[in-house]
């Protein structure tokens, strides 16, 4: 046998592509399953409302959750919910056609938030922040009215990292977008099952699956400049040092309060005090007063 005959046959291109897609699907299911388990995102009997915008992220979320549901160790229901915000040119039939084809339970909320946003925001200014707030309000209200126990959103690993830097650079806070969250009014549990998934994988998955994507720029608005700036920074870092975003994402799950500087998270005052004696009043330090020592 010639040495070449002993080598494994190289699969034809289409087979290789199929093999890659299969691997990608498996990786996504694994990462989503791990996030669900790590954060206790879904319990037996949950009614999960999957917010579907028509973008690649939420299509991927719904698709992977439906696959996991079939083999899940718990029983839960899935309802896909979209908010038709009445932007001009929104192709109303796309999502219902797709969802009917899947045979999944779904609902389209119709609420003209577009008119509100265009009325309130001066021309030329970015509308996304108010638009997202109104969208969130409409979706949360629907979830409450219909007894959904979990609201699933399509934010992914790169969104979590970008939000962390937005808060760091522009709000001087070490805080991000958590994989599981109780809404401020305590009424909703929000879950982000794509928290471990790379955006690039979602892009590839959405393309392979041929999701009927509806662009989120029909209104002509732009992402805010700060978010754009952070995205550019992260992309440049990733190009320069591949794997850096993953390293940062891992760091978000490995926090050492004693190695930071927030006395609310770690009791620095009690650290290393001898014999438990009371510390002098902070005001004495601030005023530079001499500590009254016992002689
Ligand atoms: S691009 Fe338009 S529809 Fe999308 S979030 Fe911004 S304002 Fe809303």
TrEMBL record:
SUPFAM superfamilies documented for this protein: Adenine nucleotide alpha hydrolases-like
Transmembrane segments: none
One cellular-component annotation, GO: cytoplasm
Name of one Pfam family that matches: ATP_bind_3
InterPro entries with a match to the protein in the record: Rossmann-like_a/b/a_fold, TilS/TtcA_N, tRNA_Cyd_32_2_STrfase, tRNA_thiolation_TtcA_Ctu1
Annotated [4Fe-4S] cluster binding sites: 128, 131, 219
Keywords, sorted A to Z: 4Fe-4S, ATP-binding, Cytoplasm, Iron, Iron-sulfur, Magnesium, Metal-binding, Nucleotide-binding, RNA-binding, Transferase, tRNA processing, tRNA-binding
Needed cofactors: [4Fe-4S] cluster; Mg(2+)
Keyword Disulfide bond included in the entry's annotation: no
Function: Catalyzes the ATP-dependent 2-thiolation of cytidine in position 32 of tRNA, to form 2-thiocytidine (s(2)C32). The sulfur atoms are provided by the cysteine/cysteine desulfurase (IscS) system.
The family this protein is said to belong to: Belongs to the TtcA family.
Protein name as it appears in the record: tRNA-cytidine(32) 2-sulfurtransferase
Naturally occurring in which organism (per UniProt): Cognatiluteimonas weifangensis
Organism ancestry: Bacteria, Pseudomonadati, Pseudomonadota, Gammaproteobacteria, Lysobacterales
Gene: ttcA
């Amino acid at each position: 046998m010639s040495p070449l005959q002993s080598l494994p046959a190289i699969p034809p291109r289409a087979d290789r592509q199929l093999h890659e897609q299969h691997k990608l699907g498996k990786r996504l299911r694994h990462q989503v399953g791990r996030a669900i388990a790590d954060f206790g995102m879904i319990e037996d009997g949950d009614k999960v409302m999957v917010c579907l915008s028509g973008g690649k992220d939420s299509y991927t979320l719904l698709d992977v959750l439906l696959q996991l549901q079939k083999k899940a160790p718990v029983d839960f229901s899935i309802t896909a919910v979209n908010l038709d915000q009445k932007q001009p040119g929104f192709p109303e039939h796309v999502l219902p056609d797709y969802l009917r084809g899947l045979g999944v339970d779904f609902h389209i909320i119709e609420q003209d938030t577009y008119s509100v946003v265009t009325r309130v925001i001066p021309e030329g200014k970015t509308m996304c922040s108010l638009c997202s707030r109104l969208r969130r309000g409409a979706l949360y209200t629907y979830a409450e009215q219909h007894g959904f126990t979990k609201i699933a959103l399509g934010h992914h690993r790169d969104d979590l990292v970008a939000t962390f830097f937005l808060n760091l650079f522009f709000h001087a806070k070490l805080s991000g977008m958590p994989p599981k969250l109780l809404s401020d009014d305590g009424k909703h549990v929000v879950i982000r099952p794509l928290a471990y998934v790379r955006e690039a994988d979602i892009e590839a998955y959405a393309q392979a699956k041929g999701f009927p994507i509806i662009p989120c720029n029909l209104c002509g608005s732009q992402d805010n400049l700060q978010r754009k700036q952070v995205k550019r920074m992260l992309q440049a870092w990733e190009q320069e040092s591949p794997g850096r975003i993953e390293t940062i994402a891992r760091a978000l799950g490995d926090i050492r309060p004693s190695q930071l500087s927030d006395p609310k998270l770690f009791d620095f005052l009690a650290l290393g005090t001898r014999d438990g004696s009371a510390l002098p009043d902070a005001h004495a330090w601030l005023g530079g007063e001499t500590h009254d020592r016992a002689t």
